């Protein structure tokens, strides 16, 4: 059938879409069917949804398209838009969990309007929940489309051939919801949930502790590595490059190897961001590959709903502690009605690797490194309050649709495939933005724009009893969060003038007044100028008010 269809399409490749809920094994299945090949990513026209595609290994002329997993909260509008924009796709492979056969098929049938489409069904988790031979035959007879039971993580050659055959014999879907209700269903999330996470009070607490361990350790390890590598790279890379370009005209020299030069600052960006992206990406891949991430999100979902988010929105927020740019891009996986709230929290409360390094350095020079602990706690809490006050999405209709995954052992191929995608996303999307910001920052420096703008901050700094010369460091932090390092200039002479609480207030305000230009630029690409302007103004307002309240509190106590 596919061969005849291919001839009629003038030898164009046959594109087959994989659709299904999250955590059904779609990614693992896609990876094995395509032979772990490098994938192509593309936005679906009219949306922020991103698909990946690659040719099926060993099946010439067939290209598999992996659509975004239907979200745990059932973002059916987004998925409907995705499928409407993929009218050119000829076959749908419905990927569902064995234990949730009836529930997931009913949901897909209702929300994706399957009637009239060519369909084949792939049932995963066969190793966790298996049907008898007679039950499988009954299900096939009822659905009247090809059905293959499999373990997506260990796809044997025989099963692979069955899947290719299912693609060949995909049949037109003609069922309705009333018939699908006769399918067996064995949905029971509580039995699958990690026992420790089920406890009434300690469950959420242990989930937070797990998060701190899984993401805090990689961030700290990356910081230590970058702190070791930076002085070495200065001696053996930056200094020789600087000498090499010393004969260039002043303005060109500034653009290439100045304080915000494409080479100097670009390399600094790479040294400090790349290790964090890799290690946090590795930690994220581990919790995703094993299924722990969904269990954490499920446990913390009730708490996060109180600030207008859902459990799944936690993943991009945590990624933001490595790189805000990658986090904003990952927020595409959030539900459409909570994504802006998630990005708002990332912008305000997720301290990126540069910000973490800069604040640790500033508190250390000031002689109070212990301030970093209350600082990071306050940052997240203030960000949560900011998100709750400015974003009030209607979460009542958002209920969990996809079930929890079983806990799975790690597979090295799956781990490598996930980390590779994160690294490629950073190199091809985040780093080019960093380079653009280097050019913009150099222009602002050449025309003394920041010095002029610093004067505008003087009245506010006077109000909270901070020196006016701190204004330049605050403005530089709006370009890059490590611009706060200007507070360390003169061997910490500025910090020596301040009391401990003033140092804390200064760092907090510089951290929260605005996200950096790189993050704002990324938000603009995702949402447009109007939404970006709104996010910036709301954050600036919250930062100013909370800084004043913080200062009043300190001055009242002391």
> DSSP helix count?
24
Number of strands: 8
Uncertain ranges: 6-10, 38-49
Kindly report how far apart the N and C termini lie: 80 Å
Gyration radius, rounded: 26 Å
Structural class: alpha/beta
Strand content: 5-15%
Mean pLDDT: 80
Based on Cα principal axes, name the global outline.
Answer: elongated
Strand count, sense and barrel status of the largest sheet are: 8 strands, mixed
The amount of helix comes to 55-70%
Describe the structure.
The chain has 24 helices and 8 strands. It has helices at 2-8, 26-33, 76-84, 101-112, 133-143, 157-168, 177-180, 189-192, 202-244, 250-257, 264-290, 292-305, 314-319, 324-330, 339-349, 353-365, 372-390, 412-446, 449-463, 471-479, 489-496, 500-512, 517-527, 529-557, and strands spanning 14-20, 40-43, 50-55, 62-66, 91-97, 118-124, 147-149, 171-172. Strands 1, 2, 3, 4, 5, 6, 7 and 8 form an 8-stranded mixed beta sheet that branches. β3 (50-55) and β4 form a beta hairpin. It is elongated. The model is unreliable at 6-10 and 38-49 (pLDDT under 50).
């Amino acid at each position: 059938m596919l061969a005849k269809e291919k001839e009629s399409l003038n030898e164009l490749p046959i594109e087959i879409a994989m659709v299904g809920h999250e955590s059904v094994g779609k990614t693992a299945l896609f990876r094995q069917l395509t032979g772990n090949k490098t994938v192509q990513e593309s936005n679906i026209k009219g949306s922020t949804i991103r698909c990946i595609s690659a040719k099926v290994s060993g099946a010439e002329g067939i290209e598999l398209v992996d659509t975004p997993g239907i979200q745990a909260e059932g973002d059916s509008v987004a998925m409907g838009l995705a499928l409407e924009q993929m009218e050119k796709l000829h076959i749908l492979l419905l990927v569902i969990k064995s234990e949730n056969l009836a529930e997931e098929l009913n949901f897909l049938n209702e929300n994706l309007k399957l009637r009239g489409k060519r369909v084949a069904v792939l049932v995963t988790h066969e190793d966790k929940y298996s049907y008898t031979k007679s039950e499988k035959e009954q299900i096939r007879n009822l659905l009247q489309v090809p059905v293959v039971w499999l373990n997506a993580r260990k796809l044997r050659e025989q099963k692979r051939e069955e899947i290719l055959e299912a693609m060949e014999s995909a049949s037109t879907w003609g069922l309705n919801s009333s018939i699908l209700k006769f399918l067996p269903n064995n949905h029971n999330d509580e039995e699958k949930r990690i026992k420790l996470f089920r406890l009434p009070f300690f469950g959420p607490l242990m989930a937070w502790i797990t998060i701190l361990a899984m993401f805090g350790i990689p961030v700290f390890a990356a910081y230590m590595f970058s702190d070791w590598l930076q002085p070495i790279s200065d001696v053996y890379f930056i200094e020789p490059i600087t000498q090499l370009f010393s004969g260039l005209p002043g303005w060109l020299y500034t653009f290439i190897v100045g304080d915000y030069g494409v080479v100097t600052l670009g390399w600094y960006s790479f040294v400090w961001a790349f290790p964090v992206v890799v290690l946090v990406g590795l930690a994220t891949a581990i919790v995703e590959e094993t299924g722990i991430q969904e269990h954490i999100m499920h446990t913390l979902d009730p708490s996060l709903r109180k600030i207008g988010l859902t459990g799944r929105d936690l993943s991009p927020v945590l990624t933001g502690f490595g790189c805000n740019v990658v986090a904003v891009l990952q927020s595409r996986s959030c539900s459409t009605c909570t994504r802006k709230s998630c990005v708002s929290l990332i912008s305000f409360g997720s301290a990126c690797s540069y910000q973490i390094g800069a604040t640790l350095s500033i508190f250390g020079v000031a002689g109070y490194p212990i301030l970093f602990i209350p600082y990071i706690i306050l940052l997240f809490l203030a960000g949560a309050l900011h998100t709750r006050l400015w974003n009030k999405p209607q979460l009542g209709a958002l209920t969990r649709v996809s079930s929890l995954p079983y806990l799975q052992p790690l597979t090295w191929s799956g781990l490598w495939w996930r980390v590779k995608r994160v690294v490629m996303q950073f190199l091809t999307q985040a780093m080019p933005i960093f380079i653009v910001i280097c050019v913009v920052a150099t222009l602002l420096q050449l025309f003394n724009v920041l010095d002029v703008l610093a004067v505008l901050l003087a009245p506010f700094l006077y109000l909270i009893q901070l020196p006016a010369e701190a204004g330049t460091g605050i403005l530089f932090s709006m370009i890059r969060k490590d611009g706060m390092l200007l507070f360390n200039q003169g061997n910490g002479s500025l910090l020596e003038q301040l009391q401990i609480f003033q140092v804390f207030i200064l760092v907090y305000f510089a951290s929260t007044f605005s996200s950096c230009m790189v993050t704002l630029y990324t938000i603009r690409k995702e949402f447009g100028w109007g939404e970006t302007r709104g996010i910036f103004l709301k954050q600036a307002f919250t930062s100013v008010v909370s800084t004043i309240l913080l200062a009043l509190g300190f001055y009242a106590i002391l």
